[in-house]
Amino acid sequence: MVKMQVIYSGGLHCELTHEPSGSRIETDAPKDNMGKGERFSPTDLVGAALASCVLTTMAIVAERDHISLLGATASVVKEMVTTPTRRIGSLAVEVTLPNTVPVESRAKLERAAHLCPVHQSLHPDVQAPLVFSYV
Description:
globular, GMP Synthetase, Chain A, domain 3, 3 helices, three-stranded mixed beta sheet
């Protein structure tokens, strides 16, 4: 169990605190929903969490197999939909991994990415394709 605290600080901003570590994040409503877009929006954090979870889960598997993913990156494009209600419609993730990852290990790592806890927690209506490249 992990406890987090959220305080509304006005102006559509919130301050989030991760209780175990004390690390903090601030959010703002997006420009298209009455905010200024000065910080991550709550739905941006869902996309960032997905990309981070994908890389972290792949790294856990890679480290067990003594494979370095140092320098791997992930980018995510979040698209909102408004019908039937405003929500995340898609989170498209592009993962770029070092070409030093052995070819025979790539399918295992990609499978792990699809099984990351955030990806598995998304509602089925949220499209969340993962694309992998090795450079």
